[in-house]
Amino acid sequence: MATEALDPAQAFMAKISDRYKPLHDITARGTSSVQQFYCGATVFLTGGSGFLGKHLIEKLFRATKIAKIYVLLRSKKGKSIEQRLVEMLKDPLYDTLWEDQPEFVDKIVAVSGDVSELKLGLSDKDWNTITDEVNIIFHLAATTRFDELLKKATFINIRGTREILALGKASEKLRSFVYVSTAFSQARDEYVNGEILEKFYTTPIDSKVMIGVAESMDEERINNITTNLIKGWPNTYTFTKAVAEGLVDTMGKDLPICVVRPAIVACAIREPNPGWIDLSCIYGASGYLYAVGLGVAHTAYGKHTNQVDFIPVDYVNNTILVAAWETARNKSPTPQKDEIKIYAIASAAKNPITWSGVQEILANKARYYPTPKAVSYTFAWCTSVRLLYWIYAWLLHLIPAYIVDTILLLFGKKRRFGNLAQKMSKMTIVLSHFLTHQWKFDDRNTSALFDSLSKDDREIFNFDVTNIDWTEYILTLCLGLRKYFVKDGLSGTLYGRKKQMILKIITFIVLPLYFYCLFKFAYCVIYYIFCLFSLFFK
Questions:
Q1: What pLDDT is attached to residue 296?
Q2: Which of 230, 307, 329, 414 could make an S-S bridge to 348, C-beta 3.0–4.6 Å?
Q3: 0.70 exceeded by the pTM?
């Protein structure tokens, strides 16, 4: 009996995975300089349950002979840190590890704490254990919500950084410390279309002052002054990350420390599986592509000529791992005299792709790999005009959602689509600042770092953005969203294509009728209002 042919989506991903199989053989040798640096080391990691952190844990165990990783976790939604760790390690991200070295789980120690609390919420016992044993610190934890309240963002992004810097100072065996910031920490209004260098900038407010404000003022009052405090920055996330960088600059002078600034972090390009992405990305650019692929979103707000700075998550973590090695390697006998290096990992400067380029790939290539779970024809109207965006949003999202909610209400069902449409529009507006403006991120330190690597290390810890094939990567992202968000098993692609053809015909019939009905309704409303005014003033 003939073997059933692979689904086109499965075949595409299998082809990419096969291409990277030789990488696993090189990694398995364990002889590269960067790998040797981590051999027998003990790591302390914050943000281990997030997108970057989960992937970094996997990479450390798969590519190095790390001795132990302490992961800072907090109890959440009634689950203990042990329960959260068990659930986290069930992610498909760790499938290869479970198969090849299941004992890795014994080397992960969950530590109870909270980065927003003083001393990171650590007990005295845990604090002393970490400071006695840890060689390398990776501080990834942050609130990445663009609309986070300033008080909370300050406690997590600024005070949390102060507390872990204090932990680093108390760690007697510390060899390297990596603080993960964002390329957009200085993406303020005055630098739009300008260059952001790999250096520390003057902070918008002293970190002590900002922490003092958050600790002493009530939340409502802080909310009232937030707009003035973050003036020039697009949101509380970038503002607090800028202030936190100032803390690293001042408090980190005597530490073996560096800063890594990633741009827009997206799915894995190759490791451990092409397309891997975490559900936490649902509220970012990847989440928007997910909504478009499902046929839920039909509008986009962005400038067609703007460059999109996507960076694969494995490239970001490879930069982090190599930066830690380089920082330890170049530590001088008098660390207070060392320059704290900043490494920006972005793609637009050396391998640019525009927003219109992404749209073209989605429209012409990704359409061959539709999910069978799409609820409508997948299309999106994009504009850089705010008013036009809101017209599109009302016509294609909000009005249809309220109509469906009204029908549900009549049948005694719970309304939900209006709220969903509002959230989607809000997310689009939040992202729009980065899709209607652009900055050029200098990455000379990062380029020099990559050039300094041996041939094997360049393969194992690759972060060379010039080798990204954008068509292939955007398709990998789309299929990764299918696999890890939609969870359709990358099957039913041929059925999905037929379904899209039917939905396209339906859309081309229904949409003109829908617009006509809206026009007639608006015409009638205006006519009757005019008649009422005429009678009133007669």
A1: 87
A2: 307
A3: yes
